[in-house]
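Mods, move this if it's the wrong board.
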Amino acid sequence: MIKQIFDAIVIGSGQAGTPLVFRLANEGKKVAFIEKEYFGGTCVNNGCTPTKTYVASAKRIWDVKKAKDLGIIVPDGFKIDLKRVKARKDKIVSESVEGISKGVSDNDKIVYFKGKAAFTDFKTVAVNGETLTAEKIFINVGGRSHIPEGFEEVDYLTNKTILELEEVPEHLIILGGSYLGLEFGQMFSRFGSKVTIIEKNDRITPKEDQEVSEAIISFLKEEGIDFYLNSTRVNAQQNEKQITVNFNSDNQEKSIKGSHLLLAVGRDSNADTLSLDKTNVKTDKRNFITVNDYLETNIKGIYALGDCNGRGAFTHTSYNDYEIIVANMFDNGDRKVTDRIITYGLYIDPPLGRVGMTIKDAENKGLNFKVVKREMNKISRAKEKGETKGFISIIVDLDSNKILGATVLGVGGDEIISSLINVMYADVPFTVIRDSVHPHPTVSELIPTILEEI
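Not the wrong board. Structure tokens:
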């Protein structure tokens, strides 16, 4: 079979692969671009873009319900139209996908292959019966929802399929009390579903500090969401009308009946779809592709970017993978994965913004640090907005005077965290932001005030 020769092959059109294809083409490279499903990857199609669209609708419902607290009388009788919510989401998603598609079709340096890619040797990839080869191959195949054993015969939902519903579930049972489960749990609770969340650990969001987990579960319970923690031996059965989930929680046997079941217990790498055994590219025990600081695998010229490399599970880390590749390849850079500081958001309401170490991380490292904290109900702007749940917490190294990490759980937390991220990347003492002047009245103006306590 005749091989088609390219300067580079990019497998997957996620938030690393797509910009990389265009940059390679702009540098005059002939690029093979392979995508088995939709342009844009998880973020655009069934991740950030659609879910945050739904979060916005859920927030509007909450605002209407709470309007009387701010002196606004709303007539009774409003309801959600999930079909219209979905249609709005679909429009936003399609605009992004169509934009990428047009950019690809208009670029004569990019040859698009729609289909599933599989390696046949170190530098050769087969797709739709065609054989492609290149000296540089970039893998950006992302991940998929993990399906636990025993649920294969149940009509479960994932983060992908739940976004296709056109009617609000009567009772949504969610397996998994971390980021994905909590976001969907709150939004569908606000849409009108009864929501039950089952978590195997002794608290939700187990990667966060205890006080974060406790605060989040407190205000989600206030909204009517039920939680079962320390849950083991979980299984499910289904008949035509309902799903029954059986489990042991705190040494008590439980049985919950619901109309829908969402599995939100983590993500699996799609690396297992690529026939990597033909290349000797190494993967870890969870099937994530092993890469070095420059995102190159153990095979020279083969790189892995985004969720499939296990070095981050966010759109921003995927895009940063792209930035690392092009900086080092075209801009005489020396950027590394370990240069970045971990940061992310949890898009419940109020949102969580996180950067750097947790308190537990700092304790485990034996650092000399201090934590300063301010409750949102002590911040004027939060009180004026009528959104006083949560807190701001900042960890400072007392030896270097550098900020080690921060949590902003509360109104605007997903945006406010950036002011602390910038200080950490600047690698300057906390006194720089402590002595800065922020506009009043804002929530972020309390950050300098909080740091005065150091």
